[in-house]
Amino acid sequence: MAQSSHPHDRWVTVRKNLNPGEAMVIKARLDSEGIPAVVQQEALGAFMGLTVGALGAAKILVPESFLPAATAVLSDTPPPEDVDLPEA
Questions:
Q1: Residue 62: CA atoms inside 13 Å, Cβ hemisphere, count?
Q2: Does domain 11-74 correspond to CATH entry 3.30.70.1530?
Q3: Distances from the Cα of 43 to the Cα of 4, 20, 39, 49, 66, angstroms
Q4: Which one of 54, 61, 85, 87 counts the least CB within 10 Å of its CB?
Q5: What is the per-residue pLDDT across 57-77, written as a single tens digit (0 to 9) for each?
């Protein structure tokens, strides 16, 4: 399933409102499928070790060209309960 990303791909969110542990597991799953992914968390939350709330929430980003593949890989993984958190 590996493909190369376009050098000018913008990074888009594939999952959000995750605790950092969930985010790392999802990132590892995407990486194992050859899909580049990064975990993004509010800097202050990461610094303070927060894992809940708006500052503790993390999101997973992938290059836009990989979004369909990432969505397919994660389709059998239920998203966490939808919590309304402000976008970072």
A1: 28
A2: yes
A3: 29, 12, 12, 10, 25
A4: 87
A5: 788 999 999 999 999 999 876
